[in-house]
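If your schedule permits, I should be very grateful for your opinion on a structural question. What I wish to show you is a protein chain and, alongside it, a tokenised description of its three-dimensional fold. Would you kindly read the sequence against the tokens and tell me how you understand this chain to fold? Here, with my thanks, is the record as I have it:

===
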Amino acid sequence: MTLKVGVVGGGLVAQAEHLPYLSALRDRFTLDALAEPSQTVREALGARYGIPNLHVDHRALLDTGALDAVVICSPAGTHAQVVLDALEAGLHVFVEKPMCITLDDADAIIAARDRAAKVVQVGTMKRYDTAVEAMLDSLPGDASALRYISVIVNDPEFDPYFEEGDIVRGNDVPPDLIDATRRDEAEQVARAVGSGDEDVVRAFSESFLGSMLHDLNLVHGALERLGEPLPTEVVAGDWWNEGRAVYGALRLGNGSRADLSWVQLLPTFEYREQIVFMFDDEVHELLFPSPWLKQHPTMYRRSRRNGRTADIGIVNAYDESFARELKHFHACIADGAECRTPPEGGRLDIDVLTKMFQLSR
């Protein structure tokens, strides 16, 4: 079954990940339409990927009535409305993280998904990494011996990973549309955490929801596998450096803790992303490459004592999680597979990150 799919938003993640993989997965998807307000970007990507139907906005794309599904890569503040409009149009939905900004919108999306009886999958791609799958399969049967979880990320963003011209950029988006999009996002952030100031928007929408959410979603997946009741207790949160560095802490049922930090280091080319689960008698560690690097392995390392030796196993996983999540999206629609990253999980992540932010100074 080949699905006719439209992409909403032609920015970085669409260009670097979703458009190339949708184009390559021709046995599963027909890349039929793109909605993008920049004519420069819209026409360049249409030519690059042979997309026949190009639209200025998502409403024009949906009005054609010709699609089976949409992949939403537009700015975070637009996600909720586009998801709801797509479901009302009877389409299946893949939406990049964050699914939305407010819990009210998360609840509206879940209700609309149920009414439409369509698939909604959130794009938290780390849950589709084969190294993550290997770790989940190797975890103990419960969380009783879990003592600590550490998440540390420092991120130079995308600059080191693209040559000039790889990412098409346009300066022809109408200024009033840019202003309205920013204003709408700030209003949503204000509803979520009480302020729509520029640094607050950057800290909450971009850093907590846009970046730390990836790692929290993975932690939630592991805790669910261990039988830990969710949500866990949020005990700390903070942000600094104009919202480019964020932190949060959880307390688990047995009293152990999880610490999560994400720091954006734009002047460096140093990308580090490490997640460690420490148990009484074993340690599970994940090391991720930059998501912009293709076929660079995620490393899963498991260490256990064996007499007087350390029994260490290493898995280097090369399969691209961005491609695997799109294959899963197709399987959910075509084969009735259970969605691994549904809106309920997206809501849980947003709820916990909102509580972390509210505990910040």
